């Protein structure tokens, strides 16, 4: 093998040209932010032909007054092959240090001969490194890295992004939008997917294979299996965040070094295996893909998924990325310098959006990420993008930054475009009165584009459709949706509402008509045929469904990296055992293996432990030593291990890991109800055939509930299409059964006369029913159409 120092060389001409170009940007731009935006395009490790260029924003070097002679680009080349599919391996790396050039807070260099990673080969790794006055070395990792096989806390891999994008298989799809700057608009509906629980494989490659199989079956006109229908009938797929997330707080690290010299270092490499729901980001690495989601360790898998969706037969499916730039987990302090942050918040750290360099780098991360091939972007927690106005002595929402996010132009396969944008913004959340005072329109009213969307009031957190009076109590919000809901995401099932549902006290007034057990009640509440009819037929906006809810699979706060607060988090999640796990589910040998190994052989054993844990967390104010002591004093003794702080933490970790496996949708597929799947697919296709149903209500349209209430909530809706079609729905949302009623003789202006055809009936209403008198029960509904 060629020695690294013989293979690579410093390219002073390219380095000087890069530094001088960026210096010109900063000196001639009309604003500092404008200059930093131009510089940001040249940051990170990028490769063109045989020359790799590197740019870093390094204000911490100015803080420490580090001289130029103590700053280098560290290049690490593996000796032999690195197998990114192995769980553990020990690799020797050759090391070389490359000089850098500085321009105030920026460092630049260029190197010839470095090996760039591709789908078929692992490239060289790199980081900026500096030496302090005592001779100790410190690393600055690349926040704009495009490949992080060992996570955001490890050196990055130089990656040939151009080659990855050039090989994409959906160029023809993007070619149809060439000519000027194309603006993508909203789809008809969205399927929200958490990649690790969407398939048995739990990776992007596995999900891609699943959609490729569906595509083949649809193209061949094959009969669809029930589980196939779960994924069909959607115009867009929205992935929960696929960025690198937090790592294990107390280790092990995925990159562990030993026996290092100036020319080599031994590294123990672990394949990243954390479990996370996706929102615990560290900001560093946002431009690339979480290695946990990569079967091959190659970011190409995300491009492959985009291509399969865009090439789907009959109609392409849009890809939507969910991006998290409103906060960073506290671990972000390990990955980035302090200049990125503006102080702590309830999630970890606020970001310093008013710093021109930070602002520019965050937007550049977003641009590079969406260039993987997404036509839509959902912005998490937009109400958290704030800055401190020292003059007014208050926090203000950074709506200019949100507009900048929506203004970014993407470049994919020769096409320049602007994505469709969705903002989750519940301001004034977290103010105590947010549920009543939030308009859910703050971003819509401030942005320039007419097709900007927000999550609507039935889609935001804390919606509990399994509690009695829910629908009547939300009627005022539904009235708002009729008037201004055309630019809202609608539907009650998403990653947040389903999680919140599992945390509801068992003392609340649960709608027992939804099922005989808590699991049945929860499952049907978020996959309720009458709610689907309300969302897809009666209400404006763009409906979104969460895959786990539609599959009646479990879901919760899944995060196994915590050490300090892991026990507290599990205590808060403990009630979900009551909602999502019954005796039979717990007894299945494949389920909850770790907890059973710790001594919780039955669900009753674990349930009793979970009765104690939340109470002790509260009364001891989370004193782990005291919690462990008191758990060990319970009479009769609790099942489980001998209780120490370490063993209590082990139980918490086991719960998270077991629940992550338990939530996998593949476990639910054999038990899906074919009639429910057929209805859900039919109603999705009904909406797709009538895109006008997205529009707000017009003067002839009607929505109300039957009066008097008489112990039930029954909604009625009449809508008029531009082609003269009328759509009438009658939906029993909750409560006791109605008396015998005739749907088409209700006192609703516009439904008089004949010509109505029954288009859809919820499961439970037999095919023999076409019209006439009927008794409606909880979760039953009818959809009629008429052309006039």
Automatic annotation (TrEMBL):
Signal peptide: none
Protein's UniProt keywords contain S-adenosyl-L-methionine: no
UniProt cross-references to Pfam families, sorted A to Z: GHL5
InterPro entries: GH (IPR017853), GHL5 (IPR029457)
One GO MF term attached to the UniProt entry: hydrolase activity
Top-level taxon of the source organism: Bacteria
Keywords, comma-separated and alphabetical: Hydrolase
Record's keyword annotation contains Hydrolase: yes
Protein name: Putative glycoside hydrolase-like family 5 (GHL5) protein
Species whose genome carries this gene: Litoreibacter ponti
